[in-house]
Amino acid sequence: MPIFNIKNKKLVELKSKTFPTERELQELIDENLNEIFGLEFIRREFGGQGLSIDTIAYDPQTRAPVLIEYKRDVFQSIVDQGMAYLHWLLTHKGDYLIELQKKLGKKEVDWSQPRVIFIAKRFNIHQIYASGFKNAPFELWRYDLCDNILLLEPIETPKSDVSVTSVLKTKEAKQVIRQIKTYTLDDHLKKASDKTKILFAKLQKMIKSLDERIQENPVSWYIGYKIRWFNFVSISIFRDKIRISIRKAKLEKDKEKKFTKAPLLSKWGEKTPVWWIDISKEEDLDYVFEVIKESYEAAPDR
User: Fold this and answer.
1) Among 24, 147, 204, 229, which is most exposed with the fewest C-beta within 10 angstroms?
2) Over the range 72-85, which residues count as b (16 or more CB within 10 Å of their CB) and which as e?
3) CB atoms within 10 A of CB 99
4) Is the distance from CB of 93 to CB of 107 less than 8 angstroms?
């Protein structure tokens, strides 16, 4: 997509370029991981035995490790490299925990949900399809550099029911798949009654109506809704109810004080207070949606 600068009612196209070195790309994004992805930086160059992961980070929302690989131009491989990195991480958990504690202090870690983020100037069609394999926790982000403007956009990958081990038939890949899980909406809905499924579907539609950019992100214990990285609302599904959790310092729209404030030292983390409510009836939807809308409008990544 071309980018233009406006000068005296004239459009001047900004020329696309790459970073002079891969290190410059890496350092710029590493120093702004929280603003871009909501991640906490740990360190660069992590690994051993001939393998070096560009950057390791921590996701405070999922409590999971995140590995980041940069390429100033284009990647040669996604699946092989991503699985090699995940295998190293899961066989060297102690090394990761040491670096995590040195940088961020003691944190709880969910080893079932690590992911790998690839950032490059370009990806080919084979890489895009390969990143959509089942049990392949990979994200592709494309960058463009125009003068002093950096553009970053996630690449939508077609999701497949085919496991990544069907194309990468290695012992290491099978070991990784046994330890990690990429969660789906069905994983959460299978525990719900028919009535709860209908209730969730109506709330889901209301949430997505707020913005076409909203992403639905199922993880182990909730379904998160975000623009880029900040879950402005999360939903946990039970058999006969759904729990709605809002991350916001104060709720102005909760006029009847129906939401309960979670303890600051809960599993949600310490930075932003979380408010929650359980609902089981459709007549509660309009009330909670006003609070969800308030949280969406205050999201820092809009």
Assistant:
1) 147
2) beebeebbebbbbb
3) 15
4) no
Which residue shows structure tokens 């995590």? 100
pTM: 0.83
pLDDT digits (tens, 9 = 90+) for 160-200: 777 776 667 777 778 888 888 888 899 999 999 999 999 99
Asked whether residue 1 is assigned to any structural domain, the reply reads: no
For residue 141, which of 152, 129, 149, 132 has the smallest C-alpha distance?
152
- 27 and 139 housed in the same domain: yes
Comparison of pLDDT for 119 and 182, the residue scoring more: 119
Domains held by the chain: number: 2
The residue range of the domain holding 192 is: 185-297
Domain shared by 18 and 150, yes or no: yes
d(CA 219, CA 229): 13
Contact 158/98 with Cβ under 8 angstroms?
no
The beta strand positions in the chain, using DSSP E, are: 3-7, 10-14, 16-17, 40-48, 51-59, 64-74, 115-122, 138-146, 149-154, 215-218, 223-226, 231-237, 242-247, 260-261, 274-279
Output the six-digit token pair for 247. 């991350």
Distance CA 281, CA 200 (A): 10
3-state secondary structure of 285: helix
Q: Are residues 255 and 233 in the same domain?
A: yes
Instruction: List pLDDT tens digits, range 283-299.
Output: 999 999 999 999 999 99
* Residue 3 falls inside a structural domain: no
Same domain? 142 vs 28: yes
Of the residues 148, 179, 210, which one is the last residue of a structural domain?
179
